[in-house]
Amino acid sequence: MRKRREEQQGEPAIVFRAPPRLEGEEVAAWWSEVYGDEDIDEADRSRYLLMLGDADVLS
Fold it and tell me: The whole model's pTM is what?
């Protein structure tokens, strides 16, 4: 899926990896510091997230 997206867009996909088992304030911090990183142009940031993993490791 990532390879296909990169072919369509003509540039590398940005991958956001969150550590497993984040809770409460850790989730908020990850969201603002990683996904909301101001160094990433708003036009380059995904408008959706694909979450992969078993339910016990998703936050």
Answer: 0.65
- Amino acid identity, position 57: V
DSSP per residue, the chain: -HHHHHHHHTSPPP---PPTT--HHHHHHHIIIIIT-TTS-GGGS-SS----S-GGG--
Name the token pair of 8: 């369509």
What residue ranges do the domains of the chain occupy? 2-57
CB 51 within 8 A of CB 58: yes
- Give the burial string for 1-16 (b: 16+ CB within 10 Å, else e): eeeeeeeeeeeeeeee
Q: Which of 53, 38, 46, 42 is nearest to 12 (CA)?
A: 46
pLDDT tens, position by position, 7-23: 998 989 888 888 888 88
